[in-house]
Structure formats: structure tokens, C-alpha cells
Design a protein that fits this description.
By secondary structure, the protein is mainly beta. The protein is built from four helices and 22 strands. A hairpin with a 4-residue loop joins β2 and β3.
Length: 332
Amino acid sequence: MEIWLDALDKTGHFAVDATFSTKDDSDIRLTDGLLYRDGVMIGGHVHIDSEEAQTKARSLAGSVEWILLTFENWSMIPIENIVAAAESTPTKVAAQITQPIEAQGAGFALDIGVDALLCSEECVEAAQVVKSLRLENTVATTPERTAHSTPAKLTTMTVTDVQEGHSGDRVCIDLLSMLNEGEGVLVGSTSRSFALIHGETIQSKYVPTRPFRINAGSVEAYTYLADGSTKYLCEIHSGDEICIIGQSGESRTATVGRMKIETRPLILLRFQDENTNEGHVFIQQAETVRLVLENGGVCSVTDISVGDRILGCSFFSTRHVGQSISAPSKER
């Protein structure tokens, strides 16, 4: 982690056209919203004073070497969101701190931290302490702490428990395109384990098919989007693009036409993969809600039993605002 010494204007405020000194004796110049290191442009500056500014900063992740964040009112949440957006990219994040107490917050945001602290003289000592702690943590870091951004790959899950899930709000996702038999979406109540929920493409004795619909699960569950991020089912909107996966592992993108929430009785399904990674999902207790079996067949959730082998997906990293990050977490 780098430490940049802030340049203040005559009023004591952050100077929007300034040069920062760094410990490696290089100069970082901020001019007209652009960052230069020793005369070479390395990134951009975003002053966080609104949601629009945060969105702008997140959009820079992956396209520049550095994003410098300064604040109207210093806040952890924008730092966390932008650190999450930048983690799987080459982009580094620098954040301004104005009080010593803010050094640890920015330096360990999401247990990952920014790549540089921009601070005044009174905050330098606190920034140096955080830098020292970061170096100690780096030595202790194991390969398991590395984020994985690999695409979804189907694996076999073994059902370990089937319980009454009481009543709750569940989400139907209606698409702008038709589903084929064997296709569905990944849904899970934890960020690391998902089950493949089949579309309503199979004829039922009592209701017609809805081949554009997936009765996906409860509102708090995640679903996997086309860009590799996740969303809570309750946050899905028309126009969102989600990842449709077939029983053979092939995937494609489909656009959401609408999302519908209704209160229904639920079943709690627990499962684990071959590495004993555990997951669960709440699904509506209805014959028309189906999962995809290991052999490519489908099974109604009302007929699922302990020991059945279903298709799903496991991930190694946790999530923050839908983005894959390397910070540790526990979910049950």
C-alpha cells in the first residue's frame, strides 16, 4: 500500500490541481481530473458526493491504472463498493482520508483495502501503521484468499436435507425469450453454492406451460447474471440480463421482461458438492418448480429426496454488491 501526502489549498481544502509526494520519491500530479505519475497519465479522480459519482468511479474499474477517490463527506460504503468493482481488474484504488481514524477503515475495506491512502501530515502516522499491518497480512495470506472470477461451471450436488420452509415471498422471473427443456438459472441462498432451477417448459396436468418463466426462489436468494455478478432475486428488474444455463453446461444471455413477487409456501433444500461445500435454497412448494438432475432429467421440488443428485454450481469467493471478492466470509 502506498502513502500519498495530500496537498491543500490556502483555505485548507483538498486542492483539485496539485502534486502529491510519495514514499518512493515519485510525484503524482492531479490536473483537470486526471492523475499523472512522473508525467505519465495513470488514471482519474472522482469526487464522491452522490450516487452518480460513485457509479462513475465504478465504471472506471478495468480501464485505468488508478482511481483516486475524494469525498464531500468521507464514507466507507463508496470505498467498499469501488474496491469490490476493481478487485478482479488491474485497476488500483487510492482514497483520501482526513482523520487518523479513517486510515484503518480505508486500508482494510472489505478486508482487502485500498492501494493508496491520500492523507495530510496529521494522518501519516496512522497510515503508516495500517501499511505495516497490511504487509503482515500479506505474508500470512494463503492461496485460498485469491478471488476467482471464472465463469459458472455446472457440478453435481447431493441433496442432504429437505424441510418445510414455511411461507415466504418468492420470485418469478419472466424472460423476453423462450427457454428450452433442460435450461434454467442458478439460484442460491449463499454466494458460493447455487442450484440450477429449471424453467416452466414441461407440460403439467393442471396448468399450461410458461416457457419464458422461471419460478426461481425466495427473495433473499442470489441469482447469477450474464456479466458474472449476482443480484438478490428481489432486486431483479426488467432489462437485466441473466445467465441461462443448460443441462450440458452451455450458457446464454436472456433479458428479463418482468419480475413478480408473491407469498407462497416454501421448501428448504440443502445440498453439498463433492468437496462438501454446503448450500441451500428456498423454493416454492409446487409441482411445477423443478430442478435438473445429474443425468439430465428433471424432478419436481415436491418429489426431491435426500440423496438425489442435482446440478448446480460452486464458487470459491464471496460477494459484495454482487461482485466477486477475495475477503473471507461465512454463510449458513
